[in-house]
Amino acid sequence: MAPAPARATLVVFDLDGTLLDTHSDLVESLNHTIAALGLEPVSYDDLTHLVGQGARVMIERACRLRGHPLEADALPPLVERFVAHYAGNMPGRTEPYPGLVAAMDRLSSAGYRLAVCTNKMESLALGLIDKLDLTQYFDAITGGDTFEYRKPDARHLTGTVDRAGGDIARTVMIGDSINDIAVAKNAGVPSIAVPFGYSDVPVSSLDPDQIIMHFDELTPELVERLLREFATKVAV
Ligand SMILES: O=C(O)COP(=O)(O)O
Ligand SMILES: [Mg+2]
Asked: Which family is this protein grouped under (predicted)?
């Protein structure tokens, strides 16, 4: 019997702060949301401590930051207010980071599959990617509410890989913050960190396998080298 064809190599992207510079719209919708409680607006610098676990946690953290911890029943209407504002303004000022589209073209033409694994709500991720006309690049897009678990739980990444028809042994994860590097470590795949997103610590302290400063550096050669080096490391 002929051997089964090798499954495609998959590059999985985080969304906020990695694929897309979403900061203006996140700050604007968050401030619109907390203004309902009379709270002072937050700034871009605050965002690095607030983003990472989806809108619910971001709102909770922003309220705490403004000295107004929330009771459990206060949260759902605020989440609704955030989602309505954010979805209503998409794509707003959000745009892909420089060089992203060229990098995705380069990888796709070389036969690589691409996917998104974000802790953003799935509906917001799908809507935003669609508004920016990028949907056709991805074999799977999963959000923080797609499964019962989310980054840094390994199953969010392995579930994304399954949906994209990938192979966990031929997968690389790229992201801007601790959840992305941690999910890669938890799932046993190499990671690439970008320093231009929303990490509250320098990405080098997260111990990724590679840091790239610009998407020009994201090439098939880099992906192959990381997979090769990672396999050797694991085998030792
Ligand atoms: O929206 C968030 O809180 C996190 O989103 P990300 O996982 O795409 O960075
Ligand atoms: Mg991110």
From this structure: Belongs to the HAD-like hydrolase superfamily. CbbY/CbbZ/Gph/YieH family.
Please work out whether the CB of residue 54 comes within 6 Å of at least one atom of ligand 1: yes
Domain borders along the chain are 10-21+95-235, 23-89
**Distance separating alpha carbons of residues 4 and 204, to the nearest angstrom:** 39
Q: Is the CB of 129 under 6 A from ligand 1?
A: no
What's the gap in Å between 106 CA and the centre of ligand 1? 25
Nearest by Cα to 193 from 170, 221, 166, 222: 222
Q: Is 31 helix (H, G, I), strand (E, B) or coil?
A: helix
- Cis omega (within 30 of 0) for bond into 91: yes
Atom number, ligand 1, closest to the C-alpha of residue 14: 8
pLDDT tens per residue across span 146-191: 999 999 999 999 999 999 999 999 999 999 999 999 999 999 999 9
The secondary element (H helix, E strand) that includes residue 10 is: strand 10-13
CB 206 within 8 A of CB 188: no
CB atoms within 10 A of CB 79: 17
Q: Indicate the pTM of the whole model.
A: 0.95
**According to CATH, what is the number of the domain 10-21+95-235?**
3.40.50.1000
Q: Nearest Cα to 145, choosing from 164, 127, 182, 120?
A: 120
